[in-house]
Structures are given as C-alpha cells and as structure tokens.
Inverse folding.
C-alpha cells in the first residue's frame, strides 16, 4: 500500500483530495465544542485538510511516517493553514495511546473495519475518556455489502476484520452514551480517476513482486479493475 499512497500523493492535488470525500461534518461544524480535532489512522486526511482554516489544534495520528510526511506537505500547501496548530503523531493506535485531552471531533475514517467487532466496542469504550458532552465522532466503515465480503470464504476476515451493518455501529456506539445524528449507507462504482491510480499502482506492485510479463500483468489488472461496488456506512455520533 505504500506504493499506492506514493502514487496517490503525486497524482491527486489537495482540491481533489478534499472534494472527492463525503464530509457531512460540515453540516455540524458550528456545533463543535471547544477542543482539538483528531484523525486516527489519518493517512493523507481530506478531513484535516478541509478543516485547516479552523483556529483549533489539529492532531494527525498514523502508524506510517510516510503518510504523516505526505499529509504535512499537503497541509503546507493550504493557503489558510496554520501549521503551528498541527501535531503529527507516529503511533500505533490502540496499542499506543493518543494525546490525553478532550476532543471536539474524533475521526475514524476507514479505520474500525481493521478490527473485530468486539475490539471496536473496546476502542470506543476506552476513547470516551477523551470526550465531553457534545463531542462528535465521525465514522466510515466498509459495509456487509462491500464487494470483498464473502462470509463463506474462510479467509474473509484476514484483512478487513469486520464488515458492518448499521446495527453493528449502534452496538459499538451505545445509545446510552451516544446520539446518532447522521447515517448514510453508500454504494458506488470506482471513478475513472481512481481506476487510473489503481492501474498505475497495480503495474508497480506487480513488478515489485517480480512479475514482469506485461501480458500477465494486463490480465491480472483487467480482472482486478472490473467494476466493483464500493459499499460503506458513514455515521456521526454525538456524545451525550
């Protein structure tokens, strides 16, 4: 995936990074309580770039230094960004703790599906100490309609540990502690731009694996790039 994110960084400018996301947090930005914004597993976070104009402490957390480097370079290109407000944390959450403070917004974008459902419940229970009444938590996860989900496959959960239903999210964010203020079940086909990036990545990844026969690469790539339904659930929860 490092190869993919390098290609992504070189080929996708900031405005595209920001504009291609679904960011319902914008609807509630006037309701944010005092406190920092944190993106856990941030990658090249479109959310933090989108909120770079805010006069708040912004904390980017990732276990890959290269992703933090890419994000910092992107942030420096934002005209309205005060980089002095940003903190870049190289750590492996939840094995390592995030900075201990109260947050106005916690972002779990494409993060929780890397853990079994029981672990997701533990993560949210633990992170409540970093919330106050009104803290918003943004979540995006692969749904059980995601194209790779095949429960009959014994290796189904080797990479993505859980595919979510809306009911699963309400199990993780219990009603006694959180109010669900937004939820969307999204299905989409990859855009031409995304397919182009994946095509470049596939070529480089094959060669890194020692596959040099172009006909074989083209065959594998055509199979990989067949239209896939990307299925995700996006939700925002507010701490009661």
């Amino acid at each position: 995936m490092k190869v993919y994110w390098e290609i992504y960084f070189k080929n996708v400018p900031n405005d595209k990074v920001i504009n291609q996301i679904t960011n319902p947090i914008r609807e509630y930005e006037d309701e944010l309580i005092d406190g920092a914004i944190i993106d856990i597993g941030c990658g090249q976070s479109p959310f933090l770039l989108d909120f770079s104009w805010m006069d708040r402490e912004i904390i980017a957390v990732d276990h890959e230094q290269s992703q933090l480097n890419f994000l910092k370079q992107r942030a420096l290109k934002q005209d309205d960004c005060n980089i002095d407000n940003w903190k870049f944390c190289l750590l492996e959450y939840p094995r390592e703790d995030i900075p201990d403070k109260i947050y106005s917004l916690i972002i779990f974008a494409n993060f929780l599906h890397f853990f079994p459902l029981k672990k997701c419940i533990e993560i949210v229970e633990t992170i409540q100490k970093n919330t106050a009444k009104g803290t918003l938590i943004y979540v995006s996860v692969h749904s059980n309609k995601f194209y790779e989900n095949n429960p009959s496959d014994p290796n189904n959960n080797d990479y993505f540990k859980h595919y979510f239903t809306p009911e699963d999210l309400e199990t993780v964010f219990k009603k006694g502690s959180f109010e669900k203020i937004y939820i969307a079940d999204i299905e989409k086909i990859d855009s031409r731009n995304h397919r182009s990036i994946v095509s470049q990545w596939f070529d480089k990844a094959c060669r890194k694996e020692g596959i040099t026969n172009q006909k074989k690469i083209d065959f594998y790539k055509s199979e990989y790039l067949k239209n896939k339904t990307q299925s995700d659930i996006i939700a925002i929860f507010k701490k009661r």
User: Anything to note?
Assistant: The radius of gyration is 18 Å. Strands lie at 36-40, 58-62, 86-90, 103-109, 136-142, 178-189, 229-239. The mean pLDDT is 93.
